[in-house]
Amino acid sequence: MSHLSTEALVLSTLRLGEADKLITFFTLTRGKIAGVAKGARRFKNRFGAALEPFTQCHLVAFEKTQNKLVRINQVDILHSFQKLRDDWDTIELGTQMARLVLRMTPEEQPHPAIYHLLQEALAFLETGLDRSLSFILFMVKLIEECGFQPQWTICSGGTGHGGGTTFSHREGGILCDRCATRDAASVGISADALQFLQTVSAADFRSGHSQSPSILVKREVETLLRDYITYMIGSKKRGRW
Fold this sequence. Notes:
- By secondary structure, this protein is of the alpha+beta class.
- The protein has 2 domains: 2-82, CATH 2.40.50.140; 129-233, no CATH class.
- It is built from 7 helices and 8 strands; from the N terminus they run βββββααααββαβαα.
- A 5-stranded mixed beta barrel has the order 1-2-3-5-4. Strands 7-6-8 form a 3-stranded antiparallel β-sheet.
- The two termini are 34 Å apart.
- 36% of the residues are buried.
């Protein structure tokens, strides 16, 4: 039995049996892992509020050979993100961020950049002024970190031409007018939305908040990114995870 000690963010929690919980974490040093918290559903338990969704914590667990589930021994809160849980809209956005990390990352593969991205994105949801923008920027950067970065500047159809006004989920980027005729499923993208995506893709998550896209551009970009992620992860529910 080996010992695991690491920073972690709580992605999800499920009831297990009569008194336990199954917790999925995204950890700083081990990536996505799941574990059992014995007795966590009892009225008096040693975990308290440390296993609430979104909580940033220090996790101590034990790993058994040939068992993917760790045994959660101790969880100390580093940041509770309680203000995030006080508002339904931020709960919904935070839940969607956590679900995206759940769906888009493999088990037990360290990816510190995704850990820090989720941590920073939750902080912006808790204190930021434009939370819908934070969610869009989170999707842009998570897509990049997972290796699905779309081509926003030249045609992704392989011609090397400049991009046009359509986006292809299949090709992973914009298409020139010639290539667009060969992909009936491609969708239109406005010049303003494309300019926004080109700009924020070249920036980091924090500096991307300096942009001030219109409500229409944000709606267009969010729909496009949701549908692209749905295509990439093979979900049957368009724009939902």
